[in-house]
Amino acid sequence: MSAITDPITALPAAIALKNLSFAYTTEPLLQIPDWQVPLGARIFLRGASGSGKSTLLNLLCGLLLPSSGDLMVLGQNLTRMSGHARDRFRARHMGVVFQQFNLIPWLSVRDNVRLAVYFAGGRKELEQRLSELAAQLNLASALLEQKAGTLSIGQQQRVAVMRALINRPEILLVDEPTSALDQDNRDAFIQLLLQTVTACGATLLFVSHDQTLAPHFSLHMQLAELNRAGRAG
Amino acid sequence: MFWRVAWRSLCERKVSVLLTMGALTLSILVLVGIEHLRQSARSGFARTVSGVDLIVGARTGDINLLLYAVFRLGDASNNIQWRSYQEIATSPDVAWTIPLSLGDSHKGYKVLGTTQDYFAHYRFGRNQPLTFTTGGPFTEMLEVVLGAEVARRLGYQLGDHLELSHGTGSTSFVHHDEHHFKVAGILAPTGTPVDQTLHIDLVGMEAIHADGHEHDAAHLQPQSITAFMVGLKSRVKVFQWQRQVNQYVGEPLHAILPGVTLIQLWSTLSIMENTLRVISTLVLIASLFGMAAMLLTSLRERRPEIALMRTLGASPIFIALLLQMEVLLMVAGSALLASGLLFLVVTLGQSFWMSHLGLQVSLNLFSTRSGAALLLIFASAAAVGLIPAWNAYRMSSAPTSL
pTM higher than 0.90, yes or no? Predict the structure, then answer.
């Protein structure tokens, strides 16, 4: 049957969807018969706006539950977890970077990062990891004490990456992080993101509508090809 | 981290938080302040008169007699004949009597005509006798003993001369200029209406009212008095005595037991008391709802924040608790502010209440009752805080609403 439940498979896939469907109303928005993302992969998932991108990301991080089907992340079935366990799981194993509003503007950069550590229930080596990531992402240490709301968009997005990676998550979900950046900043940001992710060894799922970003990634996918919802036949 | 986030979040919305806290502070101040004043009034009330077995006046209501004889409030409808007083006062069961003659005033303070027995037998608080700051009881017809407040407010000293007029108003139309009274003594403060009274000899009282200028004590025998206080040799006979006085054949008289009537009077006031309580409770509830409304409105603009915290792994419970903690922080801050303000008001207003209401307000704010009031405030704040907390919980359980 499926590779997910096959005991012979040594390593579970980072993400594995089986017969997953999701509907806000009676009309399903997502129907994905089979999709697997191997551990350590770096995938560019292209999807037009309104195609169910954000819904898919909400499902992957356990904020939404599928209407039916299995949703496995790192070998664990999210649909069988309690809400609290899913929140914990998300905090520990997943980092998320959005298009905008990644940081709580009235907390300092350091507190924003500490909040992520707090929810993951960790504390160890925070300072060391923080300065390590800050160096990798070209963030001056003086910046850490500033209120997040005072940073430039480019700085905020880099802090968001730092915050997403602080708990050494296995999976990093990134949703249109560059749409508010200009061309130069955008390429620099993506380079920096890929370098940092490589250093961490995390699985990266990069979701965007912008095909011009695709060359940065080795694996490309179209959400429209995965999703059977709304297709005739 | 939880505290830090709650605190920072409040700091972020400083203006609306401060306004909400202002409303809360005032309503807590009103609630706890009224409770405190009420207790002070109650204990002050009960200590106004003590050690007196009966108060006798012309036939009237119990409370009316107590009001004019003890609190110097209102006027007696009728006087008692001197003859009747003499007859009762000389009865073998009677240990002492204090005649009271009211009706005149000096600069808004009541003038009481009495005898030296007043200073010997009148008791207040826990059976405390009257004491003098300076001087002593009047010994001559045209001498006066001042209550502590009268002396302080009007600035009279021992040996000063003052002019007493007929009538009770602050400005009297009928002046008897010839009668200058000399201050013979000033009483120590008691926290009772005694402080606002000028005490003169019954004979001196007659002198003010005498038509001619016969200042011969022998000719100034009082014809009537307003009321008198009675101390019996044996308290066992007090009810029997009350009945006897009420059935007195010479004229219609009325006797009350001051302790019993004080309780009656206080229970009459309890409607007032409860009304104040209800109003202050409603004011508090209104400001708690105001706070809930403020937080509910803020929830809308905090949606992205809440969504973000959820993505970071915050559970809906965490979000709800965060809102609840903000409520409790605001209420705690307001309660602290209100306590500080109340302490200030009580400390600064002490002499004002003493002089205007004869109310001795205790400085000890932390009685069990005000503690209970504060607890109740916290409990109701937590209950009201459930409204925004529950909304935040529901909002964060369904990411589509974020």
Answer: no
